[in-house]
Amino acid sequence: MSNAIEVKGLRKEFKSYSSRSGLKGAFRDLLTRNYKIVPAVNDISFTVKQGEMVAYIGENGAGKSTTIKMLTGILTPTSGEIVVNGMNPHREREKFTRTIGVVFGQRSQLWWDIAVQESFRLLKKVYKVSDEQYNEHMNHVIKTLDIEPLLDKPVRKLSLGQRMRCELAAALIHNPPLLFLDEPTIGLDVLVKLKIREFLKEINEKYNTTILLTTHDLGDIEALCERVVMLDSGEIIYDGELQSLKENWGEDKEVHFQFVKPVQQAELEALPLSFPVIWEYDEKNHTYLAVIKDEGDHISQLISIVVTSFPIKDVKIHETSIEEIVRNIYETGTV
Length: 335
Known about the structure:
alpha/beta, 4-stranded antiparallel β-sheet, 13 strands, globular, Alpha-Beta Plaits, 6-stranded mixed β-sheet, Rossmann fold, 335 residues
């Protein structure tokens, strides 16, 4: 399987200007300005195989959007090598743009005052898509994203959720093999998010479309991606499987017990268990939480002993969410 994206030693620096104080400082700024070089992306390297769905995540200012802009040819790198779909995004720009689709959650590629279908027709001509190709592909896209009732409406009259579905359809008019999604579900309600996630999974399976997704919505990552590339201060701090991240950082499991009759915490702590358990009482839900390491058959042993010792009304197992894992990583600064 060949690579859709190859990045080696990629770096992007910006000049950050600072103003001197006072009137005298303002005059000096007219002649010479103070500035420092700030690296937004700091010598990163990674590859994405064709057909992969990869989450590219990090806190605000980590360098995610800067990377996407370099990969799509919007920004020129300070140094390093980029090969996307076998091309250099900056040197072969016109040919290259026909092979990618881009959705920026904060920016629109649709014309604000004309009907959605007119924007689609204009993009069809820009990408030189034949009528036959357009009809075959876009009829499916329009139906799946449920945007047929929106086609004759001006973009400015659409809700955010409606516009984002149309933006996604617009990015796929030429059926590109590679799709860049920068915060595609930002501000959307749950039903629209689910529709977009299902659609992305479908095009990945049907066309083997490669997807690079940057998002703060960790539900998107869990629903779509098996691999995560995590960025912090312009550097990659983790590149691997989502499951591996969960296994290494989501070691603790919480088992919630709701008892038929009141039980004392001392009784639970006295249970004959061969491994450590931390018991906590949740006053809001009137349940006891047993926090244990997820090793071997510890969970089944725990449930078995508790169930044989006390009448149980309900049992729930809570796994550490990806959101909690990512927060812990950024708080500790280590992976």
